[in-house]
Structure formats: structure tokens, C-alpha cells
Amino acid sequence: MDESKQGGTPPGGEASPGGEAEFLDAPPRTGKPGSVGNYNDPYGHQEAASTAVVPAGGAGDTNPPRRPFGGDDDSDGDDEGMLRMSFMEHLEELRTRIIRALYGLGIAFLATLLFADRLWTIISDPATDALKKLGVNPPRLVTTTPMESFSIIWVKLPLLVAVFVASPWVLYQVWAFIAPGLYKRERRMATPFIFCTAGLFISGGLFAYFLAFRFGLQFLLGIGMMNNVQPMVTITEYTDLFIDVMLGVSLVFELPVLIFFLTLLRLASPRFLLRHSRYAVLGIVILAAIVTPTPDFFNLMLFAIPMNLLYFAGVFASYLLVL
Asked: Which of 6, 44, 133, 273 has the fewest CB atoms inside 10 Å of its own CB, making it the most exposed?
């Protein structure tokens, strides 16, 4: 018997001389061309179905399909819109944001120059009011150099007011710089961040102007008058003290924002903040004693109580973030 009749030569192989006709008379495949299925073997064998899966990239693509950046299946498209920039591109973006922030500050400065005289009247009002209550006549500030009035009224104070006016724009530029590297759900915090941060900064300035600075100035001037010292305050010394108190209290009012970001970065938690609140209160009182321009208990509490309230407001914001 020929070897081809015993199944020794597989289909498509080299047939022996005596088995060529029998190989040509073999029954065709039962499946359709290109289908993954079984077919009848003329030698009585049945080929197993192929389990190969064609890659999604095409027949010739042997690489597995790529997963989103980070590898989380439940990312829900958070990576969409995130930018990948090189170090030089980051520097270029930082330069652009700084220039835009300075443009906004410059425009605000030019706008405040139009009201420089009115702004000086408002800013010098605490000194005038304190001198009146102490019986100083006339209740005026003095100058000792020719350039003092120009540098204070037309440069320093308009620039200080411009910082408060342009603070929302400057904070927006800060957020715009870091936003491309955030997820979508994190970019939703842009509006609350800008409004809360700018609102607390401006609120701190208002608190310093209407309460802290007025009471502190009157106390400081009254100490000398009790010892037969006639107060004669120059506008330079008065403005330097005014700027220090305004900016210092405004920055202190950013305490809730600081606590919020410490929680966001997982450097603090509401439980940790509440557990160590006694140390926070002590530190706030010490800081208030340093910042307060007067050593009396009333002005100390005038600073310390709002700062403690801001601390616990930050703890509450931290708790909401954890939720």
C-alpha cells in the first residue's frame, strides 16, 4: 500500500509518486475562506479551531493596545486636556504668566494714580483721627525731605492699592500656570480658588484698616503723650507702618487656603489639625503678639481671635475636601 494512503503525507506536503491522484481528489474545506472554523481532513483528522485574536491595530500590528496614561480604567477621561511640556516650555509659560500679571498690576497702578489725592485722604484718615482724639492740633503728618510727598502719595500708596485691586487677576495667572498639569476634576476648583483667595486677601486689608491699625496707632501715639511727648509723625514712617500692617494681616487671612492645600497635598488632615489645635492656638497668639503693633491685651485679642476663627474655618474646609 502507498504511504500516502496511510496518512503519512499531510495536506499541502510533498506527495509520494503513487498518491498524487488521491490527494487531488480530497474533499474541500467546509468553512468559508478566511473563517476561523473546522474543515474536513481527507485523512480522517479534524483541525482544531484557531483561537488567535487579531490585534486592534490591524493584522500586522503585534503591539498590544495602549492604555491611558496612569493605567487606571476608571479615569473617565481625566487625562484629556492635560499638557505635556518640556522644561523650557514650562519656563516659557511661567515667563508669559509673570508678564501678564505685571501688565494687570501696571494697569491697576495707572488707574489708581487718577485717584491718588483721594486715596491719600483715605489712607491718612487713621492718623488724623488718632491725633484728633489725642488732642493734637493741627492733626497733620509732616515731611522732612522734599521727595517724601511725591514718593509716598504718587508711588508707594497707589502701588499698594493696585496690589489689592489686581489680586484677582494675579491669582488667575497663578492658576492658569498650574492648571494644564491638573485633572479635569481639579480644574473645577479654579473659580472657588480665585474668589476665596482674593476675597480673604482683601478682607484682611479691610480688617487691618478699619480695626487693627486704627486702634494700634492711637495706642502708640498716646503712650508718648502721657509722658509729655508731642507726637510729630512723618509720612514716611506712617506709610511704612501702614504697609507692613496691611500686607501682614492680609497674608495672615490666607490661613484657610494654606490649610486647604496642605490637606490637598496630604501633608495634613482634619483629625490631625483638631488633635493639635491647642498648639495651633498657642502659635497664633504668639504670632499675633509679634504682628500687633501694641503690647496691650485688647489689641492682642483683636488679632488673635480672628486668626483662630480662620484656623478653624480652614479645618472645616479641610474636612469638606476629605469628604
From this structure: 44
